[in-house]
Amino acid sequence: MKIKANNNDFEPCPEFTGKAVCVDVTPLRKQQSQYGERNVFKIVFETDTDKEDGSRFCVWSPNFTPTLNEKASLRKFLRGWFGRDLSTAELEDFDTETLVGKPAQLVVVHEHKDGKVYANIAACTPDKAGDALKPSGKFVRTKDRATGVAANGAAAPGAGGYRRAQQPAEAGSEHAVVKIHVGKCKGLELRDLSADQVQALVANWLPSAKANAKPLADDRRLMAALEWWQGEQEKATDDVPY
């Protein structure tokens, strides 16, 4: 998972070796690849390192596709995390929700490239310490961010708890990483939102923003991102065979 060190809104996870715990498996989202469109998700871990505000540093896995065939990246990642291959029963009916709350030992390393610092999960192995790390309760899962309620039931600041690290836009689009500056999803990136949340912005915010003769820079960026999203949805619809 890649993190921009010069992002003022996000403090990247330092290099780290130690205890961690899974706090989220993100919803599926579409990604364009050289093989066409695919569904992808990420696994999120809290690490046993505290930030100045008392919350924990988090790291995000690479993108995984929801498949468990022998050569799948997800299968290999889980094999390392579990310390074994998945059983026949697990392979037949694997639920990613069972990963949330599962402890791990992580190795997080930094990669320096083009003047930026990237933090990556170099290893994820079983936690055998005997005093496994528990979720702090402060992290807000992606699927719950619209409500702004943390796992412990408390109100989460900015409807986001931890903000996901800003990453380079996938599929060559800078629009996916535009930050929402209005409404309940304020502080999140466009790609963090569900389709329903984006559609709500398109229906409720975009028309009035377009009517503004002098939009702010943030408004212009978000308008362009939402129009790009609409175009992607239309292309996806046009590609569906009848």
Which SSEs are present, and which pair or pack?
Layout: E1 16-25, E2 29-33, E3 36-40, E4 43-50, E5 56-60, H1 73-82, H2 88-92, E6 103-113, E7 116-125, H3 195-204, H4 206-211, H5 217-238
Give a brief outline of the structure.
This protein is of the alpha+beta class and 242 residues long. The protein is built from five helices and seven strands, in the order E-E-E-E-E-H-H-E-E-H-H-H. The chain starts with 15 loop residues before the first strand and ends with a helix.
| Pattern of helices and strands | EEEEEHHEEHHH
Q: What fraction strand? A: 15-25%
Count of discrete structural domains = 2
- Secondary-structure-based class equals alpha+beta
Tally of DSSP β-strands: 7
The biggest sheet amounts to: 5 strands, antiparallel
Query: How many individual helices?
Result: 5
Helix content: 10-25%
Strand neighbour order, sheet with most strands:
5-4-1-6-7
Distance between the termini: 37 Å
Could you name the ranges where pLDDT drops below 50 across 5 or more consecutive residues? Answer: 1-9, 153-172, 237-242
Provide the residue-averaged pLDDT.
80
Shape: globular
Structural summary, described in words:
Strand 6 (103-113) and strand 7 (116-125) form a beta hairpin. A five-stranded antiparallel β-sheet has the order 5-4-1-6-7. A two-stranded antiparallel ribbon has the order 2-3. With 242 residues, the chain is an alpha+beta fold. The protein has five helices and seven strands, in the order βββββααββααα. It is globular and about 60 Å long. It folds into two domains: 16-159, no CATH class; 170-238.
